[in-house]
User: Which sequence fits this backbone?
């Protein structure tokens, strides 16, 4: 074999080796481990997905139709936490299952992160505050992707502001603002945000006959035209009250994904608004 052929063969071999090394580096970069995140509710799940995008894997444990205080962990939930980097919780009193669940997971690397924001999580202000807190935590754990987390958080907060404006426009056009309302304790924040006038709240404890009579009296005195129940807890608590007063009743959700086709916060809020307007004949 001639020297020129040997040289060409050597050059080709070196070139192929370089390509393989570069390809290996690219593959390694593409396969960089993503943050493994477990959330205790669909509210946190949705925010984590919006902020994390393709940089995180998110798994939720409490079904959106269930109240956190009624939750019982399963072996599958324990397995989720056993492989997780972060466990996002609200810090609500009903999350009494959290310590036992973490202990059962036996994951010394798991970081428990409380995203505690006062107010109803279906309202825009709480969504934006929680989004900022989640973004800061992801950046802390994965600083190399700070710009991606920050951009995603800013984009989602902008979407929340747009949806807030849409809802306020619908309220003005429908003229339901100021509607006298009795509502479940868990729905008060949302009901006030959409502009309904809360005469009294009930729950979260089970209503006694005396409680019911007092609420009916307050409803009649305040000329209440709507009773709002909470889907996740005491969904029929206000049924008898509404019947006695002779007014409309609606059941709203406090969680993303509880109703069909409400897998985003925007869709869940829109669904609640549709139900309110429908109940009021709009």
Assistant:
């Amino acid at each position: 074999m001639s020297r020129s052929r040997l040289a060409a063969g050597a050059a080709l071999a070196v070139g192929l080796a370089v390509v393989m090394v570069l390809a290996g580096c690219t593959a390694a970069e593409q396969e960089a481990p993503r943050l493994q995140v477990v959330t205790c509710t669909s509210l946190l799940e949705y925010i984590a997905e919006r902020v994390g995008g393709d940089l995180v894997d998110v798994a939720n444990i409490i079904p959106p139709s269930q109240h956190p205080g009624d939750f019982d962990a399963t072996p599958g939930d324990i397995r989720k936490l056993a492989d997780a980097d972060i466990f996002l919780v609200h810090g609500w009193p009903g999350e009494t299952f959290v310590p036992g669940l973490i202990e059962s997971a036996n994951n010394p690397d798991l970081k428990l992160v409380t995203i505690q924001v006062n107010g109803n999580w279906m309202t825009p202000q709480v969504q934006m505050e929680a989004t900022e807190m989640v973004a800061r935590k992801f950046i802390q754990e994965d600083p190399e992707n700070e710009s991606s987390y920050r951009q995603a958080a800013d984009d989602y907060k902008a979407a929340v502001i747009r949806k807030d404006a849409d809802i306020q426009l619908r309220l003005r056009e429908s003229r339901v603002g100021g509607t006298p309302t009795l509502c479940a304790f868990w729905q008060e924040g949302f009901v006030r945000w959409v502009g309904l006038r809360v005469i009294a709240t009930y729950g979260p404890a089970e209503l006694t006959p005396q409680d019911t009579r007092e609420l009916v009296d307050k409803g009649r005195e305040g000329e209440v035209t709507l009773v709002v129940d909470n889907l996740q807890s005491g969904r029929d608590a206000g049924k008898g009250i509404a019947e006695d007063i002779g007014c409309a009743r609606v059941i709203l959700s406090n969680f993303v994904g509880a109703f069909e086709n409400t897998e985003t916060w925007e869709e869940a809020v829109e669904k609640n608004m549709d139900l309110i307007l429908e109940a009021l004949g709009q």
About this structure: The longest helix spans residues 146-174. The chain has a mean pLDDT of 90.
